[in-house]
Amino acid sequence: MRTLIKNGTVVTASDTFAADVWIDGGKIAALAAPGTVPGNADETIDAKGQYVIPGGIDCHTHMELPFGGTTASDDFDTGTVAAAHGGTTTIVDFAIQSKGSSMRAGLDAWHAKAEGKAAIDYGFHMIMTEANPQTLAEMSDMIREGVTSFKMFMAYPGVFLVDDQQIFRAMLRAGELGALITMHAEIGLPIDVLVQRALSEGHTAPVYHALTRPEVAEATGTERAIALAEMAKVPVYMVHLSAERALRRVMEARDRGLPAYAETCPQYLFCSEDDLRGEPGNEWKGAGYVCTPPLRPAHHHDHLWRGLRDYDLQVVATDHCPFCMKDQKELGKGDFSKIPNGMPGVETRLHLLYEGVTQGKINMNRFVEITSTAPAKLFGMYGKKGTLAVGADADVVVWDPNKAKRLDKANLHMRVDYSPFEGHTVPGSPSHVLSRGDLVVKDDQWVGKQRQGRGQFIRRATFGL
Q1: Read out DSSP for 326-362?
Q2: Are the C-beta atoms of 91 and 455 separated by less than 8 Å?
Q3: Coil vs helix vs strand at 465
Q4: What residues make up the domain containing 74?
Q5: Residue 179's CB: how many other CB atoms inside 10 A?
Q6: Is 357 a domain residue?
Q7: pTM, whole model, 2 decimals?
Q8: What is the C-alpha separation between 85 and 72, in angstroms, rounded?
Q9: How far apart are CA 223 and CA 77, in angstroms?
Q10: 134 located within any domain
Q11: Which of 363, 320, 359, 314 is nearest to 53 (CA)?
């Protein structure tokens, strides 16, 4: 199958230029001056007036995640189809090592969830809930399987939390293997005390999810994680950074030359603690905005955008973990601590960040970098994914800067019964989305010849920056 994308403006993380893109056999075969590509295409896409960019990489999703007495509402079918509609052509999800079990069992379980379902390509991180001699030895097995990054938690006592000694041991082992440790850096034990105190005082509304998880808890966790990585002499990657003080800790580390990296998420750039308060007479609406770390006061937005502009934040991922308001978020009615933590976002990430481009907060090259190129480099996919270059997978998005879209539930494809951005209109959208050369989405319609099972598992390389 040969495809020609003509008359577009190609945008990579470093360059912007007029070029035609020639795709052959699922790979990019040529980037050529307009009108100079030889041969006959089986399909031609006219991208006049549009940007041609690499497919988005969302390196933080949770499809079909069991959590809080329920399971995330998107599986690897519905979640990856929704991702494609939003211009994302690769995800990296999180497999879980259950306490007392092996990482191999966790990886096998997540392969079973994804195989035969995923519509776009996918990889896995591994959540480590223990760092004992068995699991430390297993890390090399995971790397041979192409799972080259490991997530550890300072939060969720009794479920995911590991202590500093275990984190440090895992970091040392990661350094030996070339793996990357990613951290949920939020000190969970004091948070649990604040949660119990709030409930004992009769504070049950969704906003107390934020009020019991203060900014200092994230800043302290971030500082601790960076200190442990510095002692171990290894890189570290902070997931879902939400607040100014945590960002400052990353900035200070990077200013000292340490390999500290961080992502933020669209919800921390566009939503705020006010959303958690709901509406007059309907404070329960705030449950749809419960995620961890929590949404912060709106003044944090400017700090995070600055972090993206100044390269102190490297990636925007989503932490996509959707739960329906009915039957799922409702588990926490009368007790905010039982509201399943998570928001939908895998479909709307590029839409929202492009709005940031139109507002002058970032430029188009940075837009491509934080949504595709940087995650590809950090997580061992660059060259195959994350750029438009000869030999790379033809994961390509034709982005129409004038195709406005209203982010209402009725206009989206995520399997969840609300949209956090209901009524919000964004200025641009994908007109065409190609995954390994296959046109899968056109004008917001799935047109791929195959859906379930067309996505391939990506065996990622070890950390190479």
Answers
A1: TTTGGGGTT-GGGSPP-B--TTTHHHHHHHHHHTTSS
A2: no
A3: coil
A4: 56-378
A5: 24
A6: yes
A7: 0.97
A8: 19
A9: 38
A10: yes
A11: 363
What does the pLDDT look like over 305-357, one tens digit per residue?
999 999 999 999 999 999 999 999 999 999 999 999 999 999 999 999 999 99
* 287 inside domain: yes
Peptide bond into 66 cis (omega under 30): no
Query: What pLDDT does 464 receive?
Result: 74
DSSP 97: -
DSSP string spanning 145-165?
TT--EEEEESSSTTTTB--HH
Which pLDDT tens digit goes with each residue over 144-187? 999 999 999 999 998 999 999 999 999 999 999 999 999 999 99
Phi-psi category of 35—alpha, beta or left, where left has phi over 0 and alpha has psi -120 to 50?
left
The whole-angstrom distance between residue 216's C-alpha and the CA centroid of its chain comes to: 24
Token digits of residue 397? 């998005």
Q: 282, 400, 301: which is closest to 350 by C-alpha?
A: 400
CA 17/CA 25 separation, integer angstroms: 24
Q: Which CATH number goes with the domain that contains 363? A: 3.20.20.140
- The answer to whether position 253 is within a domain reads yes
Contact 52, 396 (CB under 8 A): yes
Measured CA to CA, the distance from residue 83 to residue 391 in angstroms comes to 24
Neighbours of 222 (CB within 10 A): 28
Q: How many domains does the chain have?
A: 1
Q: What six digits make up the tokens of 19? A: 């070029």
Q: What are phi and psi of 193, to 5 degrees?
A: -65, -45
What's the rounded Cα separation, in Å, for the pair 168 and 227? 10
Q: Residue 310 carries which side chain, given as an amino acid letter?
A: D
Model pLDDT, residue 54: 98
Nearest to 16, CA basis, from 436, 367, 315: 367
Q: Specify the DSSP element, H or E, that contains 316.
A: strand 315-316
For 238, which DSSP code?
E
